[in-house]
Amino acid sequence: MTAKTLSKENFKKFAENLVKSERTIGVKAKETKYEFGNINNADEIVMDYDVTLRSPRTFFQPPKEKLFDFKLGANTEIKPNIEADPFVLLGIHSYDLKALNQMDIIWDENNADQHYKARRNAATVIALEPTQASEWSFWGSMDSSTVDKGYDLLLTDIGNKYYVEVGTEKGANLLSKYASAEDATNDDNTARDKVRSELPNLCKADRKVKCDTDGITASMKNSYNNAIWEKLAEKCYSCGSCNLVCPTCYCFDVKDTIELDLATGQRTRKWDGCLLEPFAKVAGDENFRENRADRFRHRILRKTVYVADKLNGELACVGCGRCSSTCLPDITDPVKILNELCS
Amino acid sequence: MSKPKIAFFDFAGCEGDQLTVVNLEEALLDVLEHVEIVSFREAMKEHSDDYDIAFIEGSCTRVADEARLKDIRKNAKIVVAIGACATSGGINALKNIRPLETVRKEVYGENWKDYDTYRARGIGEVIDVDYKVYGCPMTQSEFVKVVKSLLTGTQPDIPNYPMCVDCKQAGNVCVFEKGQTCVGPITRAGCDACCVTEGATCWGCRGLVNDPNVDAHKEVLEKYNLSVDELTKRMATYFTNELPKG
Ligand code: SF4
Ligand code: SF4
Ligand code: SF4
Ligand code: SF4
Ligand code: SF4
Description:
By secondary structure, chain A is an alpha+beta fold. Chain A has helices spanning 8-21, 94-108, 114-122, 169-178, 186-198, 213-221, 228-233, 241-244, 292-310, 322-326, 334-341, and strands at 3-7, 24-30, 33-38, 64-71, 77-80, 87-93, 123-128, 153-157, 161-166, 182-183, 252-258, 264-271. Chain B folds into 2 domains: 5-152, NADH:ubiquinone oxidoreductase-like, 20kDa subunit (Rossmann fold, 3-Layer(aba) Sandwich); 164-239, no CATH class. In chain B, helix 3 links the parallel strand 3 and strand 4. Chain B is globular and about 60 Å long. The N and C termini of chain B lie far apart (52 Å). The complex binds iron/sulfur cluster (5 copies).
């Protein structure tokens, strides 16, 4: 579609208008880190962040959500619950949007998930190409510094202004409603191309996956019996932190709870993770992945093989580096693992 | 169907868990729709030995406690340990890391011999326990959850994974990022990591998760410059009885 530009000053006005009129979720400081959250004042918005604590999946698959209320009795009643108020997601980095695009495919598989879809449809996505990388980021070598779909608007910081690529009608309307944007000139196009081509270099030089991304799946398929899993998992807590911060982890656990009247209750689902001990436990206390090493291996193979197979071969690790930074024993960094296992 | 009769008992503890029950207020009235309390020193004078479910708070710290515990076990169909003192020995177990005589002299002075007391233990070391409600004190919501499970004949859903899960769900910045340490990675989740959320760190009052990776955590704590002494203290607060010896 079309391309526009917004001076930094006009962007500020745009953000102010947005916050005033729309439920806006953007990036703000949280102690020494950054986190997506409700924006009440445009001054809170941080546009030059490196990475957020958790991925934006929080807004599409909340940590805990009620699926329906029920009432037991001769005629069991069920009242579905879908919370999907319209919102603007401002400032999601390219790698996180790439992950979100993958999740669109995953949640649409088989029984399309109505809860996810409703929230995805309720979102207007204003993506942002990163201007900083965290010390753990490696999206530069995971084909994730830019993204070509999934956004309504896509912003690139080209110095004194944002280059704004309009992805959808919805994005165009939002922009014309709240901002005075100008048409992009040839110079702007050139400036944007230059910024884009340099994006991968924002990631630190030692944060590179050295193998060709196309060959990763094949190499990883051969790694199943490698001794590395046992060795690394010796230090694993089975704490699931690596799962829960990842933009392409989507597992959940479903529970029914009943009120003290013993008649009404709710079905809820909450985040789960394949590193957790009870994850693969089934009736009769059978556990398909009883050993830490089995669970540890499973996550890495999900990202590089199993989920990739569902995504036409696209790797389900976008290189955000969140798992690497959150893992206290420092064993689960995909860069180290991939560089050791892939030639 | 007649209402199941329930009774509360206390051993060495601060009564914080019984207070949690009293503080249920309205929810307590809902609970009373389904059960009859026949004994509860914290809240009523009457006492009866005719009960189906016994909720026991506190640790076993004396020989005399053992006989009383065994009596309760004999009378009750179901025994529920409530709070850290009862489930693992809790902070009472801190005394177990020092010579008993030293501890007794310190507490009881020259009359120390008149007070028989030994290693503090969770009640599960003396009698069979059917359910455990963790925490110091236990949370109201987990207590109610276990009560509902007892009433419906289902297994209560008590997490068996580390606190870091609750922290991630809450969106906390990990305390290790702030130059502090905690024992969350080996502590059983289930309190929404409330202490970290409120700006403190996790001391592990819910006890160890099953199969905790204690060695890995010692290594991590050393990496974050905790001395061996600090590390031992950190781990001992709630884990003394549960930690593998050595
Ligand atoms: S790999 Fe690291 S973050 Fe993941 S479960 Fe193990 S210790 Fe936790
Ligand atoms: S596996 Fe790690 S680096 Fe890759 S997308 Fe998930 S959290 Fe990010
Ligand atoms: S577990 Fe904690 S709250 Fe309960 S009796 Fe012991 S010290 Fe008190
Ligand atoms: S603060 Fe403690 S419990 Fe929370 S994530 Fe960090 S180590 Fe885990
Ligand atoms: S965060 Fe840790 S110390 Fe605090 S209540 Fe939970 S288990 Fe206990």
